[in-house]
UniProtKB/TrEMBL annotation:
This is Cytochrome P450. The keyword Heme applies. Keywords: Heme, Iron, Membrane, Metal-binding, Monooxygenase, Oxidoreductase, Transmembrane, Transmembrane helix. It comes from the Eukaryota. It comes from Stylosanthes scabra. It is a single-pass membrane protein.
Length: 386
């Protein structure tokens, strides 16, 4: 059954306007400034243990204040200072892979290790944490909280739904409180040491899945060698900006497997568009995956991995600029997107310089949504040192 690109559905007792129409989304976006977008209250309540009153969930003037505080951490000057830390964390991961391969096990769960390394990068660049055990503890709890919230989401919008999974709800709140306490202790320790560093953002994954293409591995490896030689083998922002084909690959990876497969919004005021009224308080579910795979926007090859579609067009040849939303849209677009690109390029540069890889026969393709899009069974790759 195909209900179309715009329709109303219910999540428990909560009505949602489903949107997978790029043109309608563009018209709505023009009418609504970032400050006037809200987040569905049903999600704010459900995900409070993880997001609290931070940038992701706040609205109005509070959102403006949070954004103003966070945004400077992601300017080019601050990002430049983070590159060395990202290189160091990635090299440690690569050394673990080499040791594992030399021990007779060439199959690596790349998704697991990339997430762990991203957590270490965040710990160092965001929180100035030198204690590896403390960093591991924080991100293990965050991962556990993510899984716990996902397991309770099936009752979102259902009256008294939190009581159907009462112990899971308590577990989520307990984990959220423990994470808050850990982070607060870290912040207090840093304040007492009178030190400060910039904030970070998680790196998206699933890229290894797409790079099973040996031809693209070779193209990227050749590009890396050429650009590194031009920059005296120093990995910095200037060097990374020269990795043109690598950017195509990431753009295509984010198109096929966007880390946030949907975007939720709530109208804080009535929205009027060409005779149509979206009432104040209306929840909206914007289907990013649906638009990224829409053949009317991308052509008959919409489901194929073709990085070259981004060769001459930052929107990959999409017929509508709102049809490609890997980091959201408008003023509430992901504030950490530039850091994500930098992390991705550094990690892939170092990995491709050391290994070739292919999918393990044990891999099962089963993307799942656990707040973000993740491979259900990990991403086992067979690595071969070069």
């Amino acid at each position: 059954m195909n209900a179309g690109k715009v329709f109303v559905y219910w999540l428990g007792t909560e009505p949602f306007l489903y949107i997978a129409d790029a043109d309608l989304l563009n018209k709505i976006s023009k009418e609504v400034g970032a400050k006037r977008w809200g987040k569905p209250s049903v999600f704010r309540n459900d995900r409070d243990p993880m997001f609290g009153s931070g940038l992701v969930m706040v609205e109005g003037n509070d959102w403006v204040r949070h954004r103003h505080i966070v945004a400077p951490a992601f300017n080019p000057i601050n990002l430049k200072a983070l590159a060395t830390n990202i290189v160091a964390s990635t090299n440690k991961m690569i050394q673990r892979w080499i040791f594992q391969h030399n021990s007779g096990n060439p199959v690596i769960d790349v998704e697991r290790d990339i997430v762990a390394t991203a957590g270490e990068i965040i710990a160092v660049t965001s929180l100035g944490m030198d204690d590896h055990n403390a960093a591991t503890q924080v991100f293990q709890k965050l991962r556990a909280l993510q899984i716990t919230l996902f397991n309770t989401n099936r009752y979102v919008g259902v009256p008294f739904g939190k009581y159907f999974k009462f112990f899971k709800t308590l577990e989520a709140k307990k984990l959220g409180k423990e994470i808050d306490e850990l982070l607060l202790s870290i912040i207090q320790a840093r304040m007492s040491n009178n030190s400060s560093k910039s904030k970070g953002s998680q790196q998206s994954d699933l890229l290894g899945l797409l790079l099973q293409e040996n031809d693209w591995q070779k193209q990227l490896r050749d590009e890396i060698q050429q650009v590194l030689a031009q920059h005296k083998h120093v990995i910095d922002l200037a060097m990374l900006s020269g990795l043109t084909k690598m950017k195509w690959v990431m753009n295509e990876a984010l198109r096929l497997y966007p880390p946030s497969p949907n975007v939720q919004r709530q109208a804080r005021d009535d929205i009027h568009i060409e005779g149509l009224t979206v009432p104040k308080g209306t929840n909206m579910w914007i289907d990013v995956v649906g638009m990224h795979h829409d053949k009317e926007l991308w052509g008959e090859d919409a489901n194929e991995f073709k990085p070259e579609r981004f060769m001459e067009d930052v929107n990959g040849g999409c017929k509508h600029k709102m049809g490609y939303l890997p980091f959201g849209f408008g003023g509430r677009m992901c504030v950490g997107r530039n850091l994500t690109f930098m992390e991705y390029k550094i990690v892939l540069t170092l990995v491709l310089s050391k290994f070739s890889f292919k999918l393990s026969p044990s891999y099962h393709h089963s993307p799942s949504i656990m707040l973000s899009l993740r491979p259900t069974h990990g991403l086992p790759l067979v690595l071969q040192p070069l």
